Amino acid sequence: MNKSAETKKYMPLVGAAGIGSMLGSGIIIGLSATITVWQSGLGLTDGQVGILSGALTFAIAAGSLLAGNITKLFGLIRSFNLMNLMYLIGAAICVLSGNFPVLLAGLIITGFASGADLPISLTVISHDAPNEKVSASLIASTQVFWQIGVLGSYAMAFIVSHVEGAAGARMVFALLAVLAGIAFVWRTFSKKFKEFHAAGDEYRAAEGTKTSTEVSFASLFKGTDGKKYVSFFSCIIIFYVCWNLLANTFGQFQTYILVKANASQSLATGCGIVLNIVGLICGILFASAAGSKHRNKFFYVGIVIQAGAMIGIALGGGTIAMIVGMIACYNIGNQFAGESIYKVWTQESFPVEARASMQGFINGFSRFCCGLFALVTPYLVAGDRIHTTMYGFAGIVLISAIAGTRMIMLQKKHGVGQM
Predict the structure, then answer these.
(1) What is the pLDDT of residues 33-89, one digit of tens each?
(2) Domain ranges, residue 60
(3) To bridge 145 with a disulfide, which of 18, 80, 105, 404 should be the other Cys (CB 3.0-4.6 Å)?
(4) Which residues cross the membrane (predicted)?
(5) How far apart are CA 60 and CA 109, in angstroms?
């Protein structure tokens, strides 16, 4: 069976895992887009609004950090099935909440499940895939679902923006709960997925890999290939943290930046929808190349576009047209040298029994850094400081470029991920 046919065969699994990615971006953007609705509907203070946003960020980080422990406790496949049930419970609590403590509890449960699901889902895909080429294409495809979740949340929030009270926000979270329920049923009861999981066990057994036990960082880094794995880990975490600081800034504060540049709220929201459509198209384009020899070319093009976008905003005089144009450019580069290639690198470069822990730790640590950085982001992107800040962001892109280039060199040196 050729690569294209094998990839197509496993697309239902990507769909089930991809819904998890949609739910992950959906809860982040969903809360961001409806937080003022929750505030007016439940009578929340500004301080409580800040607590809700921060609690969600850190709950996602905690879920990511503990993903490996969850797979140790329940097993990889059972964890894959159960995380969406936990998400459903949390989202349902949010829908039914009538006060701040209940909404906070729902967000913490939902965020934790979302944070844990992403590394677990990617590990299941790489476990079930028959080879590296197919695995790379499948994993990169999950990023498309993340973009769909972002776009869908923006669109849903826009549609219900005129609904009085907290009812509009409840509708958004009810939709997320329904999607989580669909994913739970699909993952748990699909006979095809059970066949994929069983075949994956056979593939990994043939490679001499134990899939039932998640190994610790210490045993991985101190083992025979410890130096190689430490090098991989260092490059990936530096690249991803630097990339995520910028991605989180434009994800959470894109509307804020545009409004501060004197755009209307409706224009800022509309731009968010259009810009995410651009990102979705580019994400699909990269997914088609992730399992090919051309993906490194995409990486270098993406890095250059990202750096150019930061410098463009800095030099553009703060006009709305320039900021929108450069954010559009950033959304293009972001798909070629960002989350997708990070996921592929992590799943390719470590043993399958360490991938959930490794991806979970990097995701969680990065989220923690983003949560801290978000505390000062509004100050940094204010109209009178955004130019200087963008030069600093260009420097961050340069650091991620160096780490990513080193990662590509290491993969070539060790014969990993070579198409």
Answers:
(1) 777 788 888 998 878 887 888 888 889 989 999 998 899 899 999 999 999 999 999
(2) 8-202
(3) 18
(4) 12-38, 50-68, 80-98, 137-161, 167-186, 229-247, 267-286, 298-328, 390-409
(5) 9
pLDDT in tens, 132-160: 788 888 888 888 888 888 788 777 777 77
* pLDDT in the model for residue 306: 95
With respect to residue 2, please indicate whether it lies within any of the assigned structural domains. no
Please list the helix, strand and coil fractions of the chain in percent, rounded to the nearest 5, in that order: 85, 0, 15
Whole-angstrom distance, CA of residue 139 vs CA of residue 291: 9
User: Which ranges in 160-264 belong to alpha helices (H)?
Assistant: 167-189, 191-206, 217-221, 226-260
Answer whether residue 419 shows pLDDT above 60: no
Cβ atoms of 70 and 123 within 8 Å: the answer is no
Nearest CA to 28 out of 363, 281, 257 is that of 363
State the alpha helices, DSSP H only, in 261-351. Answer: 265-289, 295-315, 320-336, 339-349
Q: How many residues does the chain have?
A: 419
In this structure, are residues 341 and 295 in contact, taking their beta carbons and an 8 Å threshold? Answer: yes
Pick from 124, 127, 122: nearest CA to 139? 122
CB 131 within 8 Å of CB 87: no
- Residue 64 tokens read as 């990511």
Q: Tell me how crowded residue 96 is: count the other CB atoms within 10 A of its CB.
A: 13
Instruction: Check whether 212 has a pLDDT greater than 70.
Output: no
Within 10 angstroms of residue 276's Cβ, the number of other Cβ atoms is 25
pLDDT of residue 337: 92
Distance (Å, rounded) from C-alpha 416 to C-alpha 357?
20
* Domain match, 305 and 383 both: yes
Integer Cα distance of 248 and 254 in angstroms? 9
120, 13 in Cβ contact below 8 A? no
pTM: 0.79
127, 248: one domain: no
Closest to 127 (Cα-Cα) out of 183, 237, 206: 206
The CA distances from residue 29 to 82, 137, 176, in Å, are 23, 26, 11
Buried b / exposed e over 332-361, threshold 16 CB at 10 Å, is bbbbbbbbbbbbbbbbbbbbbbbbbbbbbb
Domain for residue 219, yes or no? Answer: no
Q: Is the pLDDT of residue 331 over 80?
A: yes
* CATH number for the domain that contains residue 383: 1.20.1250.20
User: How far apart are the C-alpha atoms of 379 and 326, rounded to whole Å?
Assistant: 20
Query: How many domains does one find in the chain?
Result: 2
